[in-house]
Amino acid sequence: MTILHVLASPTAAVSSVFAGVDVCREAGLPLPEGVRRPVFEDDLWDLAEVVGLPISLALQHRRFNFAVISNPRWRLVAKELVMALLAPHHEAVASLARAYRTPLHVSTSHGRLAELIRFMKWLPTHGVTSLEDLNSNDCDAYLAHRRYERDEDDIVVGERSSGTRRLAALIVTDLLNYRDLFTVDRVPADLRPWSGAAPSAIAEDKSGVGQNKTPPVSDAVLQPMLAAALHLVNVIGPHVVELAGQIRVADRDWSTKTVDLKSSTRLPLAEIKRVLAEYERAGEPLPVMRPHHIQDRIDAGWSAQDPLTPIAFSVLARQAGFRQFHTAWLPALRGPVEATLKVVGAERPFGRTAAHVERADGNGTLPWTLPLHREEATTLIGIVRTAAILTLAAVTGMRASELMELQVGCRRPPEEYGPDLVRYRLASKLIKGQPLGGTRDEWVVVHDAYQAAALAEQLHDDPVEGNPLLGRFHFNSRYQWFRDWVNGPHGQRLGLAPIPNERLTLRMLRRKLAIEIAYRPGGLLATKIYLRHVSTATTEGYASRPGGAQAELLAEVSGHEQQRNLELVLAEFRNYQEGILPTGPGARSLTEFFASIDGKLDQAAPAPKAQRSDRDVLNLLTKRAKVLHLGPANYCWFTDPARALCLRLAGTPTADRPLIGMCDSARCPQATHHPCHRPVWAEHAERTEIFLGQLGATRKTERTRLQADYDRALRVVAEIDAGSATMNEESA
Question: What is the C-alpha separation between 563 and 638, in angstroms, rounded?
Answer without folding.
Answer: 17
